[in-house]
Amino acid sequence: MRLISLVVRLAVLVLLLMGIQSLWTNFRSGNWFPDWIGGEDKTEAVHTVVLQEISAMGKLELVKYNFKDVVEQEIVKMWLPNAKAVLIVQGEAIGCVDLTKIAIADISSNDTTLVVNMPDPELCVFKIDHEKSKVYNTEYAFMEEARLVQEAYKQAEKQIQKSALDMGILDQTRENARKILTPVLEKASGKKVVLKFPMHAKIDKLR
Question: 13 or 137: which carries more pLDDT confidence?
Fold first, then answer.
């Protein structure tokens, strides 16, 4: 019993000395109380990430056009001054080929040549970069500013699509597909590779 009592006293003494040392250290550093007595609250965050879906990406992006446009949008009124907005818009258009559309029947070969019938090139992305775009000026917009800006962005996106198609992004996509895929397939197959595209690429109508 004496031994147990002695151990308990020593433990209490050690804890007391540690407490006194902690208080003295904090006093010397300008902190009256140690963290375990009166420190600041700490914020902790716990994240629970759930993977909802895995999608197979078969579209090979082959060319990207960057655009900068100045858009003037106007709401014409009968009696009041017309509401106007001027935006500086930046965006991009990306041409790609959807490799998932290639079937076994689209591939043929002989002793020396591998022929692959490719799908039509697509304009798979055309969008506004809202972080790099801004409203330059508005006039007489008042409560209609949000409507003006939204419509201006919509028109700018359509213009990006039209400009990319007019500038030949699909032809460039087709050419880049040949440059990139041909040497890879030739090295893998050990044969000469010919990529064949449809004679007339399908162009989706403007939305």
Answer: 137
Question: What's the CA gap between 73 and 156, in Å, rounded?
Answer: 10
Q: Whole-angstrom Cα distance, residue 153 to residue 126?
A: 12
Q: CA–CA separation, 31 vs 94, rounded Å?
A: 59
The 3-state DSSP class for residue 150 equals helix
Length of the chain (residues)? 207
Q: What is the dihedral of CA 158, 163, 169, 170, to 10 degrees?
A: 60
Beta pairing partners, 138: 85
Backbone φ and ψ of 94, nearest 5°: -125, 130
**Contact indicator for 102, 118 with CB cutoff of 8 Å:** yes
Question: Per-residue pLDDT for 170 more than 80?
Answer: yes
Q: What is the mean pLDDT of residues 115-127?
A: 92
Q: Report how many domains make up the chain.
A: 2
Q: Is residue 85 located within the same domain as residue 131?
A: yes
Residues 155 and 187 in one domain: yes
Domain boundaries, position 183: 59-196
User: Is the dihedral angle over the CA atoms 17, 21, 27, 31 positive or is it negative?
Assistant: negative
Q: For residues 135 and 85, is the Cβ–Cβ distance under 8 A?
A: yes
Structure tokens at 15: 């804890």
Please tell me whether residues 19 and 64 are part of one structural domain. Answer: no
